[in-house]
């Protein structure tokens, strides 16, 4: 990523503020019916949540694909890495474009891309097709995440002038993590009780994507293009020199947080089955749901705390949860079947505690990035945080999958715990020192 450059560029203008054109879409076209900004805020949040949920539906279904096709666990991590690679590529190439093209146009594009991915899951269900479908889905999420987060902040600022970005950041975090939580639960239910579990979930979500896309089309735009056209360039992040330390600490905090979500979104069912002897698909979905759900709920429960206190609690929770995950691996290895229950409680409980920390740390990272945004670059600077976070979702789980080809399961899990623990204990205190 080319980052931290400071050359000026023509900023976009928020619609509904002086210089904007209320009631008109960018480019001067005729007025179209639109929702009030307050209602548009919630429609945007729901669309964000649905698209995020679609992207974790396959988590408990991977075991079914493995059972049907007989591929090893490393293929699961490759499929997951294809998704994260798609996210990062889209963030780098297009995550910042809504600052120029407008929020609504970019998010509608993301909805169409996710719909294409749903069709690919149905029509091309072998390992190669799964890799391609997940890559396409990742492209849509890369286009979506920073733009939806920025649009929520814009809509809230216009609907409630002077209200600040805290509430919008909380809802963005809940939609993001809440969607990631609902996906595995829905996938687990389909895997256990619905016919054709490798087809039906994608058809249901295809219909949901069409519905939320239609509703979102009526959300008001909050950005008009710059008056002077600018040449396309990939993602850059312009942060004042005195703020770069805070920005990179936030980015690495996001990296560590999303490494945990990557573990529970990809290979956690393998750990449950091989280490803890839990092979039920619904259980796998519930475990992932609990971890992502804790990330969403923590942001709501502790929303009234200052960002600084949320970060302190988040860092402590992540560290505690990671230690519990490591202890679960050691107990399972030492006690065998007799310690399976204790190890399962430690694994699930540690995941939930770490998940709560993930939600608070990532919200703090987004709040830090938002406070550094200047000159119409909110989507751009937020994209940088998401880019680093999704690198955390990609690299450590992929390394876990590769390591499992040569190393024992317990050693691999302990290595993951140690790496993420070091990262969060380095980045966390630096984030805390720079916030209020």
From TrEMBL:
Comp. bias (Gly residues): 17-26
Membrane-spanning parts: 41-65, 71-94, 106-125, 131-153, 165-187, 199-219, 246-276, 282-302, 311-332, 338-361, 381-399, 405-427
Organism domain of life: Bacteria
Membrane topology: Multi-pass membrane protein
Location (main, coarse): membrane
Annotated compartments: Cell membrane
Region of interest (Disordered), ranges: 1-29
Keywords assigned by UniProt, alphabetized: Cell membrane, Membrane, Transmembrane, Transmembrane helix, Transport
Matching Pfam families: MFS_1
This protein's name: MFS transporter
Source organism: Herbiconiux gentiana
